Structure to design on (119 residues):
């Protein structure tokens, strides 16, 4: 809680749409069936967008929803779909969790992918 995972990247093409996704890896030591993630998207020109994302990690029967062969599962969280960056330059997307516990047992990592969509 309070620690952020931040990812900075350059955007040159402002004409294409992008899907922005986070890959959350967790293991069976995580005690809940979901996780809430706070997402902050910002640039160097004062654009800031904040959002709360919910990721379901287990179905109603307690089976993991992510992919993976071991006890580590990866879940894909859609941060933004069909997003058009309003201008080129350096962008940063940060994540923090919104769960009650300070330390999240069983959460291994979070990653970010910027997927350019075909025109």
């Amino acid at each position: 809680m309070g620690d952020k995972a931040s990812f900075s990247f350059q955007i040159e093409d402002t004409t294409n749409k992008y899907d922005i996704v986070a890959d959350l890896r967790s293991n069976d030591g995580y005690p809940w069936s979901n996780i809430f993630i706070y997402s902050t998207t910002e640039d160097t020109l004062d654009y800031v967008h904040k959002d709360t994302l919910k990721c379901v990690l287990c179905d109603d029967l307690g089976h993991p929803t992510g992919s993976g062969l071991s006890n580590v599962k990866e879940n894909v969280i859609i941060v933004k779909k069909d997003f058009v960056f309003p201008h080129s330059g350096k962008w940063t997307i940060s994540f923090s969790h919104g769960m009650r516990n300070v330390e999240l047992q069983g959460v291994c990592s979070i990653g970010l992918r910027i997927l350019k969509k075909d025109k």
Strands lie at 5-11, 18-26, 34-43, 48-56, 73-83, 89-97, 107-116.
